[in-house]
Amino acid sequence: MNKQDAKHLNKSKKVIMNKLLLSLSIASLSTAVFAGSGTQWSYSGKKGPDNWAQLSADYYACNGKSQSPVNLTGFIETDLTPIEFDYLAGGNEVLNNGHTIQVNYQAGSGIKLDGKTFELKQFHFHAPSENHIKGESFPLEAHYVHAASDGELAVVAVMFREGAKNEVLQKAWKGMPKKAGEKIGLYENIQAANLLPDNKDYYRFTGSLTTPPCSEGVRWHVLKDSLEASKEQIDLFTHTLGHDNNRPIQSLNDREVLE
Ligand SMILES: [Zn+2]
């Protein structure tokens, strides 16, 4: 084999490796959200957040130094480029995985961050909110989960205050499966762009998945503006899951929160 061939082989190995990593991170995204597959975990008791890292060798990252969620504080002012949203009406399936209610998204929607494209895979909810803003907790938080072609993950988070009934949320709530593991198809696709505030200013930091395997290296963007949902909508979510689904706040350690 000459040098050129070796170089080529190394390159294709790298491509295969990247593809493998991508399918792994997407697989862990789905295991993270699939009760019943992988090692079981929960939000309280012996399998609760304090013990996630001990439940499985795959969950070692849960003890990492760049974990989510966090209390967003000590902001560093900088020139953040706006997130470019390019969402189609593609939310076509609602899943109850026992840990959250999740709307799966058809391919073709995404965001652009600093010139890099991330495809929207799904969005799901936490009650009460996982992240806090300047010490404030919110009754509900949505996470829009995106993946780039190299496997890098980017989450956009939106807080909800208690207020008026949210009609877009209602489209997902209408078909909310009652039992863990149940999934239903939606008659009318949900447009995630309608479930974002008008002002898209955001806080940025580096974190992790907030559920096992807690993989780090996730780009986090928490929108400064919030939306409203009614008390009935928030209660229906918590009642259907049967428990709160927020991981406790993790230490920022030496991370900076940009705004
Ligand atoms: Zn989440």
Annotation keywords:
single chain; 259 residues; alpha+beta; Carbonic Anhydrase II; eleven-stranded mixed β-sheet; two-stranded parallel ribbon; 13 strands; 31% strand; globular; disordered N terminus; binds zinc ion
Summarize this entry quickly.
By secondary structure, the protein is an alpha+beta fold.
Instruction: Report the uncertain regions.
Output: 1-7, 9-28, 30-36
Stated plainly, the CATH topology is called: Carbonic Anhydrase II
Spatial gap, N to C terminus: 52 Å
Shape: globular
Number of strands: 13
Helix vs. strand class: alpha+beta
Task: Report the portion of residues in β strands.
Answer: 25-35%
Written overview of the protein:
The chain is α+β, with helices and mostly antiparallel strands and 259 residues long. It has a single domain, classed as Carbonic Anhydrase II. The chain has helices at residues 3-32, 52-55, 167-174, 231-241, and strands at residues 71-72, 84-86, 89-96, 101-105, 110-113, 116-126, 132-133, 140-147, 153-162, 183-191, 202-208, 216-223, 227-229. Strands 2, 3, 4, 5, 6, 8, 9, 10, 11, 12 and 13 form an 11-stranded mixed β-sheet that branches. It has a two-stranded parallel sheet with strand order 1-7. A hairpin with a 5-residue loop joins strand 8 and strand 9. The longest helix is centred in the first third of the chain and has 30 residues, at 3-32. 37% of the residues are buried. The site of zinc ion (ZN) has 4 residues, from strand 6.
